[in-house]
Amino acid sequence: MRTSQYLLATQKETPADAEVISHQLMLRAGLIRKLASGLYTWLPTGLRVLNKVANIVREEMNKAGAIEVLMPVVQPADLWQETGRWEEYGPELLRIKDRHQRDFVLGPTHEEVITALVRNEISSYKQLPLNLYQIQTKFRDEVRPRFGIMRGREFTMKDAYSFHITQESLQDTYDAMYGAYCKIFERMQLDYRPVMADTGSIGGSVSHEFHVLAESGEDNIAFSNGSDYAANVELAQTQQVESASVDGLQYVLVQAADENGEADANNWVLLVLAAGHTLNDIKAEKLSGVAAPLITANDETVSAVLGATSNDIDLASVKVPVFADYVVAAALKHQAYAEKITAADLRNIEAGDPSPCGNGTIEIKRGIEVGHIFQLGDKYSEAMGCGVLNENGKHEILSMGCYGIGVSRVVAAAIEQNHDEHGIIWPDPIAPFKVALIPMNMHKSQRIMEAAEALYAELTAAGVEVLFDDRKERPGVMFKDMELVGIPHSIVIGERNLDEQLVEYKNRRTGEKSLLQLTEVTAFIGGL
Amino acid sequence: MRTSQYLLATQKETPADAEVISHQLMLRAGLIRKLASGLYTWLPTGLRVLNKVANIVREEMNKAGAIEVLMPVVQPADLWQETGRWEEYGPELLRIKDRHQRDFVLGPTHEEVITALVRNEISSYKQLPLNLYQIQTKFRDEVRPRFGIMRGREFTMKDAYSFHITQESLQDTYDAMYGAYCKIFERMQLDYRPVMADTGSIGGSVSHEFHVLAESGEDNIAFSNGSDYAANVELAQTQQVESASVDGLQYVLVQAADENGEADANNWVLLVLAAGHTLNDIKAEKLSGVAAPLITANDETVSAVLGATSNDIDLASVKVPVFADYVVAAALKHQAYAEKITAADLRNIEAGDPSPCGNGTIEIKRGIEVGHIFQLGDKYSEAMGCGVLNENGKHEILSMGCYGIGVSRVVAAAIEQNHDEHGIIWPDPIAPFKVALIPMNMHKSQRIMEAAEALYAELTAAGVEVLFDDRKERPGVMFKDMELVGIPHSIVIGERNLDEQLVEYKNRRTGEKSLLQLTEVTAFIGGL
Questions:
Q1: Which CATH superfamily is domain A44-235+364-416 in?
Q2: Where is the Aminoacyl-transfer RNA synthetases class-II family profile domain (chains A, B) (predicted)?
Q3: Which of A63, A219, A277, A424 has the fewest CB atoms inside 10 Å of its own CB, making it the most exposed?
């Protein structure tokens, strides 16, 4: 591709409203443009990356035995009514009416559609297991779209749904998908981790998230240094301890719940943590007698209820129920009032804590969720009556798995993990081009133009994806643009080196430079 | 691919509500399933074809210098307000509101979005010409979706938009697209024709449609047998003739128009055609003094206005204005009342008419429109202020071309043109699989299973796309399914032939059968 016949669309200025580095770089490097809040057009360079990501996903899904289909973006409401999600789902589900005033949704996910399909197509256990996937446009009407395509409204997902007559079969496919996901992110040369996860509102029991590690990640992940254990910090349990000392205590007064779990406006519960620890809301909300979602008392209420400020509480005289984190409970176990304290897991796990798996200690890293696999069980198949005749000729409801990858999100996550002050640094397998060919002042030098054209023809004929910068620009502008776009390998053709039939090779990631014979460039690039 | 691990989804019964053969066969051969009116899921076999069509389109667009982008399905209303299409477009444009009650549309086309993009990205004539395309999901809220994906609501389009500072540049890109479209349909081995077309509501001046010829086509196309001339029958002009004889006359009394072109309730105009010819409404509506759309008088009015029935009119005594088709005017030119007749092109061109191009005579065939190229001129760029600085540093509005292919529609059109009573007959380049491997009673014969497995492994290793029918089905069921699905080449492995290390080859299109040595199958298939 010649830049003169391409839409490079690089920008010097960092856009003011782009908060995260991937969003800034995707705009500056000409990967995307905003059409409206949460809606982006993929420019040529961005789409090349997106297509490479999609193709790797497709190849590994096929290898793992999944079969590709394509479902509509627009889905009829009646299927969502069958599962109850028409009512349950919040305003992220964009509900629309067609010209005949019939209800539809713009699909944020396709459990309903695929389950309806399989309900009609599959009648015998002999046709199972079946794992169907698509790479397709989804819509989620985020209240505050942000971070560019990282949390956009329209996005590209790979979503797969598997159907089974036994738990063993579901587990087999789940394991195969786990393996395929590992291969997918390995092939993209991303530093990633599979992480035990909560199944959340989608339902089911077993679930893993796949995270690309990056300092800017929204999620904190707890790893064991002595095992494969990895879990979202919110979910990692801390362990009961025999003894502990603390440098001080933190108190949080929260609303109590009545017998029905409803907030009980006149009663309160006191939570106690060691100084420096962080309250884990999810854990606190699961405590018996605590209202969920958590309602924290203001200073006035604290004074009224406890007769003291948060800094000045005497646990011995507190009259409300007290939950103390395991560490605090161990530190206070010899106090006279210890018996009115209930020990509980209240805090976020931290680096240095023993791993919940029993092996090693915990390290914390930040990650960006790019994939999620679930064992759904029969949540959707039961609600929609999706079953088959089993070996004994009896109708049996299927179990399901579902397996997502945020294809467009992977592009942003890869940038969060791979960039420097000059721009993006693409891993080769998802780079928009493998090689940037940069002739210096070509339009003033016939022999540089000839050498560049010949090398471009040779590399292209060898199947190498080359971005040939044939613009009438100063070399400095070209270097900066190619670095910003993040092409892994550059070949620079200049007068002085050309005297000796040499060109300069530069590696975008390492910064290493070397001189190559013109005649060996194609073989060198091919061998990278 | 093994059928046992695939979703073949063939059906014996012809679905009752499928009117056209492509719709019937796409359902029966397991290519698509209906989700709701005009909304279809692409099953694995259908998606394989769709992806092959899309890839051929993509390759030829790239070769022709177009650059791929991807725009959102959901588009903000304000762009459609800028061009006035927010008001102009009918209810086919599905208007939606997001959670903040902001107006959006589900894009049926992307002129507004691309023009807004280019307006922001391109500032100099040096960056032109530019031809951007996408292969993407579109939505058109058809009042009566029918014929399956042929006239569905959600569909896959390739749409391209080019931008130019001169008419010559636009013409160059238009010609390049014309050439690319010819290559695309040639590569798909479809019998197609480029046809001169009306530009309709999308605006602009020069336009060609690309039609796949098929008896079931909705459009009649007039071809010259002496030149490349081809036009939609509605648009092909008939020629004035010097002399003619007619076997009788037809009379059509239509409402007159007043000076403002409005229907003039008390006045009428008489149109006269030769017996056997068909009135062309579009041509009649363009006649001076005739109301558009055409309003035809009922028998009572004919009697009141002309004092006779349509069968019994005496032209000599008619008091209203008379337009006669060229043929009629020539036949009556020696009549005393000839001077009150205005000669006009009133009828549809017919087989045997001289070609409007001056060379050859006309033949009529039916076609399915699968592509359309337009020179839009400045309709959108003017309305949206999309221009660049020209060589003299002055701001100049760009001219545009647009170029569409109905990617999903091509799949249906290919079937309309390529089928027989047994099912689909795919051209090789868009077939879901190249070879059907059919072992007879494999589950009862170890040596047939071994031969089939070995051949499957060999063909797959050679890069051939094989559908290996490893189901426990009777051979007759397998044969019927593979014919229905339309796989171009079949290899049948049976006991008797295997005694001599032979297999049977069958060509789906010609029905030819031949015996092949097991060892030569892969080379034979590779050479097809």
A1: Bira Bifunctional Protein; Domain 2 (3.30.930.10)
A2: 38-427
A3: A63
Give yes or no for A434 touching B (CB within 8 A).
Answer: no
Question: Chain B contact for A413, CB < 8 A?
Answer: no
Q: Which residues belong to CATH 3.40.50.800 in chain A?
A: 433-527
Q: What is the pLDDT of residues B316-349, one digit of tens each?
A: 889 999 999 999 999 999 998 999 999 999 999 9
Place of tokens 């809040």: A37
Contact: B141, A116; criterion CB under 8 Å? no
Instruction: Choose among B44, B74, B116: nearest Cβ to A69.
Output: B44
Cβ-Cβ contacts under 8 Å between A and B: the total is 130
**Residue B437 to residues A363, B6, B465, B496: CA-CA distances in angstroms?**
54, 14, 10, 17
Which tens digit of pLDDT belongs to each residue from B345-400?
999 999 999 998 889 999 999 999 999 999 999 999 999 999 999 999 999 999 99
Q: Establish how many alpha carbons lie within 13 A of residue A110's alpha carbon, considering only the half-sphere containing its beta carbon.
A: 28
- Phi, psi dihedrals of residue A44, rounded to the nearest 5°: -55, -45
Q: Do B70 and A117 touch (CB under 8 A)?
A: no
Say whether B137 and A73 touch across the interface (CB within 8 A): yes
Give residue-wise pLDDT tens across range B204-260: 568 999 999 999 898 899 999 999 889 988 888 998 999 999 999 999 999 999 888
A chain contacts of residue B139, beta-carbon cutoff 8 Å: 73-74
pLDDT tens per residue across span B446-481: 999 999 999 999 999 999 999 999 999 999 999 999
- Residue found under tokens 């199947």: A463
Contact A139 B74 (CB under 8 A): yes
Considering chain A, tell me which residue range(s) the CATH 3.30.930.10 domain(s) occupy: 44-235+364-416
Percent of all residues in chain A with a pLDDT value above 70, rounded to a whole number: 98
Q: Which architecture characterizes domain A433-527 according to CATH?
A: 3-Layer(aba) Sandwich (3.40)
Segment holding B63, helix H or strand E? helix B44-63
Residues 54-83 of B with CB under 8 A from A: 65, 67-76
CB B40 within 8 A of CB B149: yes
A117: chain B residues, CB-CB within 8 Å: 33, 35, 41
pLDDT for residue B202 is more than 50? no
What is the identity of the amino acid at A363? Answer: E
For A8-29, the pLDDT digits (tens) are 999 998 888 898 999 999 999 9
What is the DSSP-derived secondary structure letter of residue B355? P
Put simply, the chain A residues between 98 and 157 with a CB less than 8 A from any chain B CB are 98-99, 104, 106, 113, 116-117, 120-121, 130, 132, 137, 139, 141, 143, 153-154
Give yes or no for a contact between B390 and B396, defined as CB atoms under 8 angstroms apart: yes
- What per-residue confidence (pLDDT) applies to A132? 98
Cα–Cα distance for residue pair A155/A167, rounded to 1 Å: 32
- Of the pLDDT bands very low, low, confident and very high (cuts 50, 70, 90), residue A310 is confident
Strand segments (E) across A233-359: 249-257, 263-274, 322-325, 341-344
Is pLDDT at A200 greater than 80 in this prediction?
no
Contacts of B96 in chain A (CB under 8 A): 94, 96, 106
What is the reported pLDDT for A202? 47
For residue A97, what are the CA distances in angstroms to A76, A93, A346, A483, B267? 10, 13, 46, 47, 45
Disruptive mutation site among A5, A99, A123 for chain B (greatest number of B CBs within 10 Å): A99
Question: At A106, is the pLDDT very low, low, confident or very high (cuts 50, 70, 90)?
Answer: very high
Question: For residue A343, how far is the Cα from the chain centroid?
Answer: 34
Tokens of B154: 């959600």
